[in-house]
Amino acid sequence: MENVRLLYAVLFLSCIGLFHSCTPKLDVPKPDGGTADFSKTIAIGGNYMAGYQDGALYLKGQKLCLPALLAEQFKLAGGGAFGQALMPDNEGLGMNDKVWVGKYVSRFHLNYKTDCQGVSSLMPINSAVSLGAATPYLTGMAGNSVQNFAVPFAVTANYFTPSFDVFSIGNSNPYYNRFASQPGVSTIFADAKAQNAKFITAWLGMEDIYNYASSGGKGPAIQSSASFSARLDTLLGGLTANGAKGVIATIPDFRSFPYYTLVAWDNAVMTKVQADSLNDIYIPAGLTQIHFAPGRNGFVINDAAAFGGVRQMHKGEYITLSVPIDSMKCNKYGLLINTINNCYALDSSEVFMIDQAVNTYNAVITQKAAQYNFALADMHSYFNSVKTGIKWNGADFNAEFVTGGFFSLDGYTPNQKGYALIANEFIKAINLKFNAAVPPVNCVECDGVLFP
User: Fold this and answer.
1) 153-200: pLDDT as tens digits
2) CB-hemisphere CA count at 13 Å for 45?
3) From the CB of residue 177, how many other CB atoms can be counted at a distance below 10 Å?
């Protein structure tokens, strides 16, 4: 019996030894900056770099913004502190895309609302914010403790404008005022350059194009690619004068954003009776370019070049998410009398201008990345892949509004999970360019769309 027990003991110990000898050793690379120096980093750009989401700039969104997520990973490879002018709470302050109603709004929340047809459903809801209520959000922290110089809605020209922060004299942007070193005197560029950063995270040109596109082509005209190139040269040349390196991103196609694709141009669905009743109004008025049939039809938009100043939309034209949906449902907005205002639609000529700008700007960005030895994060391609669907940590993400998991409730900026996904694409580009080993982001605290 003793011999049997001894035999079992020997076999048990042998199995343990065999198990340990066969245990795979994970070859996890030690975090390393490679040829990049992350000891002092700054970020420059607009909405995406500031952490704008759900239609506002707010505390948690800033803490988990793209450059802040990157800075946390950079710390593992020798990176330093990354300060921001943080909002006081998680309501934050947004810019109203309907400026004729009011300047400021709260962030969007998903909640139940009853529409004009009496149907209650989940939808993004925000509210107007008076100037008095906005006051706590209009001041921040100036000085050397700020390394995020991204300003929502700032075009590249604004980086050189001393009056950009003086929103009280008519400038509609309050965000630079929150951290300007000398309000009314300093510029974003000068403040950023004074940091003498070793590494720069940049995403520029988005607002130059999308401030125009989001207003249906009624915003400031898109600057030429030559002007954009010259300003980008000045920015990057100044910020890298002492040998700094960095990463810069290309600009996505506007069709990647649900803000431009959710409301289809031909979603005027009607019966034969409904179509005939509208034809009986338009045709006698001589507006024969407008004709409705049973099924899907193009909405009617304003067009100064068309007879009577109106026409139907056609394939390749787009309606923005800011369009008054309730009025479309119940008041024949976009069909009769009240045709869709130009500020809510992109016609074919505006689409051409936007596409051309995205293509030429991306060519400039690619060339500047090579010129200044920057890593290039190809966000144009990546957002196209989001549109078709991607998987991360076992979860599926796509560009569907609300349900896709990537975009926030404004339909243009990502939610926090979306920013984490983008951060990993930046890290891939950085690691490849600088032979670095920056670990990927795994942001368990990042929110997606929050349901009530």
Assistant:
1) 999 999 999 888 665 544 568 899 889 998 888 999 999 999 999 999
2) 23
3) 21
Residue with tokens 């938009």: 301
The CA-to-CA distance between both ends of the chain, in Å, stands at 67
Q: Do residues 436 and 33 make contact, with C-beta atoms less than 8 angstroms apart?
A: yes
**Among the residues of 23-137, which ranges form H helices?**
47-50, 59-63, 66-75, 131-134
Identity of the amino acid at 387: K
Domains with residue ranges and CATH for the chain:
41-259+349-434 (3.40.50.1110), 272-346 (no CATH)
194 CB-side CA count, 13 A: 17
Contact of 345 with 300, CB cutoff 8 Å: no
pLDDT of residue 141: 67
For the segment 116-156, what is each residue's pLDDT rounded down to a tens digit? Answer: 888 888 999 999 999 889 988 987 765 558 999 999 999 99
Please give the Cα distance from 318 to 265 (Å, whole number): 6
Q: Which candidate, 42, 89, 52, places its Cα nearest to that of 416?
A: 52
Predicted TM-score (pTM) of the model is 0.91
pLDDT in tens, 380-390: 999 999 999 99
Tell me which residue of 84, 235, 86 sits closest to 155, measured CA to CA: 235
